[in-house]
Amino acid sequence: MTSIKDIAQACGISVATVSKALRGYSDVSSETREKVKAMADRLGYVPDSIAQTMRTNATRNLGVVFIDEAGSGLRHEYFSSLLESFKRTVEKQGYDITLISSNTEGAPWHSLLTHCQYRRCDGVLIACVDFTNPQVTELANSDIPIITIDYQFPDSPAIFSDNRHDMKTLTDYVISRGHRNIAFIHGERTQVTEERIAGFTDACSEHGIEVPPSNLLEAEFHNPEQSERATQLLLSLAQPPTCIMYPDDYSAICVSSILRQRGVHIPEQLSIVGYDGIMMSRIIYPTLTTMRQNAFDIGQLAAEKLIGEIEGTASDEQTATIVRGSLYPGETVRSL
């Protein structure tokens, strides 16, 4: 069986350099990393994960806690893209992932924490959950390294979309098209929602637009039925909005389909805006005006930072990382 020593001899470099190159360390040049990986493939090198586990008591197994109350699960494009990026990045570092479920029926665990302990997770990614859930807080307060998405526990790293900035950018665009009577159907009250409401009001205030309370309504994320009911309330107002901003692309697309069936022309009679930037937003007609969240970078950064926490290479200077999205103008906001 080929060993790291064999690769080192074949490349004419040290065993330590080969080890770092195979694990993708940044202090090894990209040229050396590629040379080492090519030689490893040529010699048929396979990492001895069992030996690594015995030496370090590490399993190189990472848990992913993903509880989607809306029931879309891994079909949710934003989170599935994030998890795919996370998975690819950790696999390059020799880690595997396990989906951690809160379902205890017939299982040898009784909570998220005991499930992670049962699977011997070296670390855990927590995304798309109710962060006030006692099982989630119990896991966050344990000794297992964690990283969270769009929420931060004390002294733990987190990756955030720049929700306030990005929502302001999206609203600024709507205002630049001449709209001043704008409604925002926001998601349920979470940290993400509060940041987006702040971004929306920042933009309106900056442009001297006063938003009446009737133009701010709540509907759960990825719940088009609730968004459709909120839309009907808005359209029944004495002065209905000229543009409605939705909590996510899925809700915006579903509601726009219902409105078209009722004879409402978009954007000629009503402009609509989504959020997330899912693929469907770019292939429907007219294409949806939205904010594209950078799921790939978020997933990659989450993986790198979690591994850094596990391996003791993480920087103590910055525990929260903010990733900005990008505006997709689309065609569903008409110019007034």
UniProtKB/TrEMBL annotation:
Keywords: DNA-binding, Transcription, Transcription regulation. Residues 2-56 form the HTH lacI-type domain. GO terms for molecular function: DNA-binding transcription factor activity; transcription cis-regulatory region binding. InterPro entries: HTH_LacI, LacI/GalR-like_sensor, Lambda_DNA-bd_dom_sf, Peripla_BP_I. The keyword Ligase does not apply. Pfam families: LacI (PF00356), Peripla_BP_3 (PF13377). This is LacI family transcriptional regulator. It comes from Bifidobacterium canis. The lineage of its organism: Bacteria, Bacillati, Actinomycetota, Actinomycetes, Bifidobacteriales.
